[in-house]
TrEMBL record:
It comes from Enterococcus phoeniculicola ATCC BAA-412. The lineage of its organism: Bacteria, Bacillati, Bacillota, Bacilli, Lactobacillales. This is Uncharacterized protein. It comes from the Bacteria.
Amino acid sequence: MNKRLKKKTAYKKYIRDIFIGYETMLENPSLDELTFQYLHEETILRRDEKRQIRFITHDKD
């Protein structure tokens, strides 16, 4: 498998994992935070003070 296809597959998995994590947080209100990483990018799903789920995506240093 070439490098570009590996990156594409890994990115699809990253996006799929974020949505599965979001659904998990909807089903389980006791979860406060989930973190997902892809190469130099990181996405955090976190509950705010109103217990709503917020997405935060930033580049890792």
